[in-house]
Amino acid sequence: MTSQTLLLGQTLQFTADPFTAGPDAAHHDSAGGVLIEGGHIKAVGHGADLRAAYPQAAITDHGDALLMAGFVDAHVHYPQTGIIASWGKRLIDWLNSYTFPEEMRFADPAYAAEVASRYLDLTLAHGTTTVCSYATIHPASVDAFFTAAQARGQRVVAGKTCMDRNAPDGLRDTAQSAYDDSRALLRKWHGQDRLSYAITPRFSPTSTPDQLDALGALWAEHPDCLMQTHLSEQTDEIAWVRSLYPAARDYLDTYEAHGLLGANGLYGHAIHLEPREKDRLREVGAALVHCPTSNTFIGSGLFDMAGLVAAGQRVGLATDTGGGSSFSMLRTMAAAYEIGQLRGTPLHASQLLWLATIGSARALRLGDRIGNLAPGMEADVIALDLASTPAIAQRSTRAQDIWEAVFPTIMMGDDRAIRATWVSGQRLV
Ligand code: GUN
Ligand code: ZN
Predict the structure, then answer these.
(1) Which of 64, 96, 329, 343 is most enclosed, with most CB atoms within 10 A?
(2) Could you give the percent of the chain with pLDDT greater than 90?
């Protein structure tokens, strides 16, 4: 018989979307349990009931830690791990000064392997079990990332970043090689274990129309793949896009005109959107990815979470490491809260946690497999200590409900709050 593990602790399960259903969208049990079998969640319920129903299960008791789904980070650049927190530049200068020189180093597969491992270990320690990452232009940087994730049993999405202009020598491919390399990587990795491939044009300034066409054609040949790119992050960038694509109606049109707008598209940042862009994104059911620590760190602007969600957009949440200044989805939720406050629309703790799990999982079209504690879901679970520092503990002891108990950890927590991380039922942290 397959071995069973019963995790005991407080449990948090979403039963609806808190943006529409409010804080009642979740079920909290202060003495709950999660029964894991064969890498999947078999049952979630009251701890005592599960103990009685599954007497043979190996029990680990996590006391009053909160058992919940592992975090899902819908937009990261694992190759930027080493340059996180680089000072003083806005987007284009930041790319040229810090990012491109670092991404050049990934021509060395040994360096790529070292950073991929370091990145996944760091993020697992922060409770993130799934990420959707850009690699660099080097195919071996994709191999390195998928190899490291596969060794950890993780569900991840990644793709080779494509750039054939406005990038330095050594960091450009061509329209044809981007197509050929992406296709070969897709065929090699997509659907292997828990890995999936995302077609990845970096953003329209670093691709020629020919390259966007080639990647649009590849996506049409593999419509089940995700396609990830950047959209309307900074005003200077938008002006540059306008000068590079004079015939385009707006930034989104540079993708749309080349077959790169679709339901499986992920558009990072999406801050300064025109009405037409919002309409088209919603019509096709594309996903927007909010990267709040990046948007404040690089000085990009204030994403309109409340307005976009109310208008029916699909939205995920992400660190955007290393433009983002953190590996932590807790810190990322805090920044999303602060940006909401600056816009006059604070997000509730239930909405923040939903975005960091189900919202991002749905953005990645993985909402049926990860992002929640529910029978049949893959067993990517974390145990969150709601009193991980004296400052957090003294605030959370006053809490009247689970949302008030978890909010200080959202606002002030870091990797010390992650007591354990399970991936596919295996404890990795
Ligand atoms: N736009 C194009 N490339 C990047 C990147 O690496 N980070 C961020 N934040 N924005 C981008
Ligand atoms: Zn990015």
Answers:
(1) 329
(2) 99
**Do residues 429 and 418 make contact, with C-beta atoms less than 8 angstroms apart?**
yes
pLDDT of 132 > 70? The answer is yes
CB of 77 sitting under 6 A from ligand 1: yes
Q: Is the pLDDT of residue 14 over 70?
A: yes
- 154 CA → ligand 2 middle, Å: 21
Does 320 contact ligand 1 (Cβ within 6 A)?
A: yes
Using CA positions, which residue lies closest to atom 7 of ligand 1? Answer: 323
For the 4-70+372-427 domain, the top CATH level (class) is: mainly beta
Is the distance from the beta carbon of residue 203 to the nearest atom of ligand 1 less than 6 Å?
yes
CATH of the structural domain 72-363, one choice from 3.30.110.30, 3.20.20.140, 1.10.600.10, 3.40.50.970: 3.20.20.140
What is the arithmetic mean of pLDDT over 299-320? 98
The band of 2, judged by pLDDT with boundaries at 50, 70 and 90, is confident
Domain limits, the chain: 4-70+372-427, 72-363
Give the distance (Å) from ligand 2 centre to CA of residue 336. 16
Mean pLDDT of the chain: 98
For residue 306, the CA-to-ligand 2 centroid distance in Å is 22
| Reported pTM | 0.98
